Amino acid sequence: MSRTSRPGSMPTRVVLFDFDGVLADTENIHIAAWQRTLAQLGFELDDARCARSAEVDDRLFLREFFEGLQIEKADVEGWVRKKQTLVATLLEHSPRLYPGVSALVHALAPHVRLGIVTTTWRENVESVLRSSGLASLFQVVIGKEDVKEPKPAPDGYLLALKRLGIEAEEAVTLEDSPTGVTAAQGAGLRVLAVGHRRNPGEWSKTSEYLENLTNINRVMELLNLPSLGAAADPSQPSG
């Protein structure tokens, strides 16, 4: 079994999270933003056709869209900016964390340093962290503007490790997509695969799989960190 498929022997010093799909339930926001943006160009896209936009860089999604229609010399950057402006507005009015996220972050904070590595713009992350009261608990946020190549390239994770001054063996990342897992493992990181709406499969076979983040003690166990105990675990029902 590979190093990425079991709890590591070294103590975990840093936990790095993907943002969209791991911490924040933003898939529908990205889909809606692209649907509204592309409607201005006269295109109507259903949710299934826009689903890829929640996993890959905006520029890549839009280039693929235009190439599929054999549209050349399109203003990719301009339309990406329009979409991002709409996303920022939607997140400001409807920031949504997945169940268990807030409790998990608070449980981790006394034991490890925390960071976020994402293919979304940093302003999206910071908006949600502020509104949820978690901003002060993260030591580093790497957004898409911080690296030349987004996921699946490992650049974002390598930059996070550099800024935190640690080796890959001391960190674990939580990812929810094939793109993210490839990026993290390319940086030498151990990955916990977080499902939420995605079932385990080929994308998660080299990682420990978590259906969601509500079982805090299970996450702590996989990170080789102290358990909260049944009575103290805020994800568990009492009584």
Please give the largest β-sheet: 6 strands, parallel
Task: Count up the domains.
Answer: 2
Highest CATH level, the class of the largest domain: Alpha Beta
- Radius of gyration using CA atoms only: 18 Å
Overall pLDDT: 87
CATH homology superfamily name of the largest domain: HAD superfamily/HAD-like
Quick gist of this model?
The protein has 239 residues and is α/β, with parallel strands linked by helices.
Give a quick set of tags describing it.
239 residues; alpha/beta; Rossmann fold; DNA polymerase, domain 1; 2 domains; 6-stranded parallel β-sheet; globular
Question: What can you tell me about this protein's structure?
Answer:
By secondary structure, this protein is of the alpha/beta class. The chain folds into 2 domains: 3-25 and 97-222, HAD superfamily/HAD-like (Rossmann fold, 3-Layer(aba) Sandwich), CATH 3.40.50.1000; 27-93, DNA polymerase, domain 1. Helix content is 38%, strand content 10%. It contains 9 helices and 6 strands. The protein has a 6-stranded parallel sheet, sandwiched between helices. Strand 4, helix 8 (178-186) and strand 5 form a beta-alpha-beta unit. The longest helix has 18 residues, at 76-93.
